[in-house]
TrEMBL record:
Protein keywords: Disulfide bond, Signal
Protein name in the entry: Uncharacterized protein
Chain intervals with Basic and acidic residues compositional bias: 192-204
Gene3D superfamilies: Saposin-like
Gene Ontology CC, one term: endoplasmic reticulum
Family: Belongs to the canopy family.
Secretion signal, residue range per the UniProt entry: 1-26
Lineage: Eukaryota, Metazoa, Spiralia, Lophotrochozoa, Annelida
Residue numbers spanned by region Disordered: 191-236
Keyword Disulfide bond applies: yes
InterPro entries per record: CNPY (IPR042415), DUF3456 (IPR021852), SaposinB_dom (IPR008139)
Amino acid sequence: MEINWLVHPLYLLLAFLLLCVELGEAARDKSLYCSACRAVIDEMNYAISKVDPKKTIQVGSFRVDPSGNQDLYQVPLARSETHITETIETICSKMSDYAQTVDKATGKQRFVRMNSRDGGGIELSNINLSGDIQKGLKFACESFVEDYEEDLITLLRDDEAEIETKICVQEAEYCEEEDLLIPLVNIVDPNSNKEDTDNIKPNEETEYNNEESTDKNLNDATEQGDTLNEDAKEEL
């Protein structure tokens, strides 16, 4: 029997599902998902860097071969698949450390980390911090991890270079190459305050008013002291 594919229920269902997937991808805020992708990779690399390089973990097969041996060996804990997998499970909780801002150079919305890892100053001006924004970033993080967890584990385990480019740009297509040039944290320029101070022009009227105010306060204090002295003499 010939099937009319134009009206077949399964065909219509498949077309509907494909349309939903395409609409879902189109509805994704690329700046949000790009920031989530980059933040995950940055936080993962930082977590790996904090592990003692001397620590190792036993991996391999516990199966005993005909000779009675097991294929076990030691690898550094930091980039072991076990450690990376465990770290990924909680990495999205780190998204609460980020706030939304607008990049001054490109005008694009992006997310920046709000805490310093080395004690240096961080610029926190022009940021938008709310529960809804952080929930959105965490959701984007969870979606990214769910879709690309295996790729992420493999690249981190093998200490691949340019992971951001390989996943965020090429695989997920959340970012453009130029997006990767924007830092995830705004470092305060140590000379910025000095420059701002140097650029401030003195206000003569303000200085004059301040001098008048100072003179008035001194006169009031003198008069008050004279009054107290007279009262003391009368009591004697």
